[in-house]
Design brief:
Shape: globular
Number of domains: 1
Number of strands: 0
Number of helices: 13
Helix content: over 70%
Largest sheet: none
């Protein structure tokens, strides 16, 4: 698994993919950070910029995930991996953890935000770093969804579009529930909204069930990715 992780992580920075992903994410974090904290309209907070960037993740994550499994399948290099002594689960986990590591670099840079703000005013670091934790774990869930979509096709473009579609549904699911006439169903759908679950962290709420939801969602789609690749292995 470590060899797969190293190869994948290195590949993100020997091509433009990793740099592009980090540039898009950090640009918009910086943009919202400037808008919220330097125009005098809002209290000093790093939680609001992170929450706002949740929309941008839908566009950035497919950049990172679309080639993860689809490209290997298209070029037939997946056959070398599938016939290697390394188990499928380790191969998939190695690829997934490489993407998580790239995303973690973004979060580590974002972790400097509250420290910068604290030099110029009072900052609620507990809220900001709780939000950063939720931001990281929700991103892990997004990456797992992208990994699964990439496992279903040999076309990176289709994987990209599919990932964006699923993330868009998750982003809008509470709005969809809001227009349904059945209150119980609307309430059920809102439980799956990552956007709504992140919102609590903006208001100084360390929501453990939401953190568990993000981890469960990530684990579920990584599991589905392993099963998808396993299905091809035994054909």
């Amino acid at each position: 698994m470590l060899a797969v992780f190293k190869r994948e992580f290195r590949s993100y920075f020997t091509s433009v993919t990793g740099y592009l992903f980090m540039a898009v994410m950090l640009f918009f974090v910086g943009l919202y950070f400037t808008g919220y904290n330097l125009n005098g309209s809002y209290v000093s907070s790093f939680s609001y910029p992170l929450y706002s960037v949740n929309l941008i993740i839908m566009f950035a994550v497919p950049i990172l995930t679309m080639r993860s499994l689809a490209e290997d399948r298209k070029s037939r290099t997946d056959q070398l991996l599938l016939t290697s002594p390394v188990s499928v689960s380790r191969i998939v986990l190695g690829k997934y953890l490489a993407m998580v590591a790239v995303y973690a670099l973004v979060c580590l840079i974002c972790a400097l935000g509250p420290l910068v703000l604290s030099q110029y005013g009072e900052v609620n670091r507990k809220t900001d770093y709780s939000m950063l934790l939720a931001f990281f774990l929700s991103g892990c869930a997004y990456l797992a969804i992208g990994l699964y979509m990439s496992s279903l096709t040999e076309s990176p473009v289709l994987a990209c579009v599919g990932t964006f579609g699923v993330l868009l549904i998750l982003y809008m699911i509470s709005d969809i529930g809001g227009i349904l006439p059945i209150d119980a169903l609307a309430s059920l759908l809102s439980q799956f909204s990552i956007r709504d679950r992140l919102q609590g962290f903006v208001y100084d709420l360390l929501d453990i069930p939401s953190l568990f939801y993000f981890l469960s969602l990530a684990g579920f789609f990584v599991f589905l990715s392993i099963q998808s690749v396993n299905k091809r292995r035994w054909r």
